[in-house]
Design goal:
This protein is 31% helix and 25% strand. Strand 4 and strand 5 form a beta hairpin. The protein contains eight helices and eleven strands. GO terms for molecular function: ATP binding; ligase activity.
Length: 299
């Protein structure tokens, strides 16, 4: 009887953990009974895994170190240094460097196989990191494929040149008049809100596709429609709320996710909407900004 492969899914936050658990319990993954752990649980592994799949940014390095330690297939820290050695970036320690340009930021999220993009969706960010730092809401709206050609081409070039291993990827770009400029490329799905945005617009579950590719069973994602989606996110207040969250405004699109603050809790406010055209989504995001930003800041 063939030995059963042991798969370790390494999560990096509660929402990724819950969604991975949902996929496992629903039988949506071609893997039986994988371990689902966080980086803090690695000291108590019940047995040696055969495959390690990192499900988010903060899980990538612990997963790579575990593969290196156990001699498992997949990316290791040495692979990262080999790629970075061709650049002028410092290799000592764990460094995060951004060179910021005065331009809109766009994201391309998708799935790669053998260095080729098999699925991608693009979104345009509303607001910036400074807005988020001072507690102002930020958002994103998906972009029509016909208008995202240069973003897709730049993202695919980045995926091919790194190269990104089989699985989901997250690429950030500055959208300049002269063409996109790469900000970052990452070999993992976007955060939970970016995943929800992709599911709302296309029906494709990037976390599920990433797991399938990570265990050697990649598929070709098939979008279930040509809809548009957007989200609005307000950082949590510095102190627990004392009032109920405001009701959502009347919206043109469908609300597919709404996490609203509650008294006594310090949580972000997040709403994801979808509609048949980007103008309706953008109008809804403006309404959400007007309704939610001030009420969340004034608890």
């Amino acid at each position: 009887m063939a030995k059963r492969s042991r798969t370790l899914l390494l999560t990096d936050n509660e929402r990724n953990h819950r969604h991975a658990r949902y996929l496992i319990d629903a039988g949506a993954l071609p893997v039986r009974g994988p371990w689902l752990l966080g980086p803090a649980d690695l000291d108590s592994l019940p047995a040696r895994p055969d495959t390690v799949v990192a499900l988010g940014a903060a899980a990538v390095l612990p997963a790579a170190r575990l593969r290196e330690q156990l001699g498992l297939p997949g990316p290791t820290p040495a692979d990262v240094h080999e790629i970075a050695s061709a650049t002028d970036l410092p290799l000592a320690g764990e460094v995060d460097q951004d060179e910021w340009l005065d331009a809109e930021v766009c994201h391309v999220d998708g799935v790669a196989h053998d260095g080729r993009v098999t699925f991608a969706t693009a979104s345009r960010c509303l607001g910036n990191r400074y807005d988020h730092t001072v507690g102002t809401g930020t958002g994103a709206v998906t972009i029509d494929e016909a208008e995202a050609g240069s973003l897709f081409a730049s993202a695919e070039a980045a995926v091919r040149r790194v190269p990104v291993p089989d699985g989901a990827f997250h690429v950030e770009l500055f959208d300049l008049a002269t063409g996109p400029v790469l900000l970052s490329v990452a070999a993992h799905p976007p955060g939970p809100l970016g995943q929800a945005l992709c599911r709302a617009a296309t029906g494709v579950d990037l976390l599920a596709e990433h797991i399938r590719a990570g265990i050697g069973r990649p598929g070709v994602p098939l979008p279930d429609g040509a809809g548009f989606a957007g989200y609005w996110h307000v950082p949590p207040p510095k102190t627990p709320r004392t009032r109920l969250a405001p009701a959502l405004p009347n919206l043109h699109g469908e609300v597919v996710l709404a996490t609203l603050p509650r008294p006594g809790r310090i949580l972000p406010t997040e709403v994801v909407v979808r509609a048949g055209n980007p103008a309706a989504v953008l109008t809804d995001l403006i309404s959400l900004r007007e309704r939610l930003d001030e009420s969340v800041r004034t608890t």
